Amino acid sequence: MSYGWEAKWIKKKFKVVGGLEVETCQDLSTGLILCPLCTDISKICPSPTEPSSTPVSKGVYFFSIEDLYRHMIAHTRASEWGKYVTVGEEEGEEGDEEEEEELDTDTL
């Protein structure tokens, strides 16, 4: 019994919503698709014709192109959410400083 598989990655283009094309790696034996934003696909599968057995560390795999597309959309939203969180933290820090100043003037 085996606990893993030897992937054979090839570079492939997939059409997604709106006619956009995504170039990523797909395993020939399982059909798994790698997220091109989470891994460097040029190192994993440099050629569209010759399979590569390069191991993937911290890869994110998908069974369908629709799932990959949703994951890639989440990447863009996560960066937007990160911007909002940073702004909120900065505002919260300024509020803490103002409260400290008010306390100092009250004690005098």
Structural class: alpha+beta
Task: Give the tally of β-strands.
Answer: 4
Strand neighbour order, sheet with most strands: 1-2
Taken from the alpha-carbon principal axes, the silhouette is globular
- As residue ranges, the low-confidence spans are 84-92, 95-108
Task: For the record, give the distance between the C-alpha atoms at the N and C termini, rounded to a whole number.
Answer: 76 Å
As a percent range, the share of helical residues equals 40-55%
Order of helices and strands: EEEHEH
Number of helices: 2
The largest sheet, given as strand count, sense and whether it forms a barrel, is: 2 strands, antiparallel
Q: What Rg is obtained from the alpha carbons, in whole angstroms? A: 23 Å
What average pLDDT do the residues reach? 77
Task: Bin the strand percentage.
Answer: 15-25%
Write a brief structural summary.
Helices cover 44% and strands 17% of the residues. It is built from 2 helices and 4 strands.
Walkthrough of the structure:
The protein is an alpha+beta fold. Helix content is 44%, strand content 17%. It is built from two helices and four strands. Strand 1 and strand 2 form a beta hairpin. The protein is globular and about 40 Å long.
Produce the secondary structure layout.
Elements (H helix, E strand, L loop, with lengths): L8 E7 L5 E7 L5 E2 L6 H4 L16 E2 L2 H43 L1
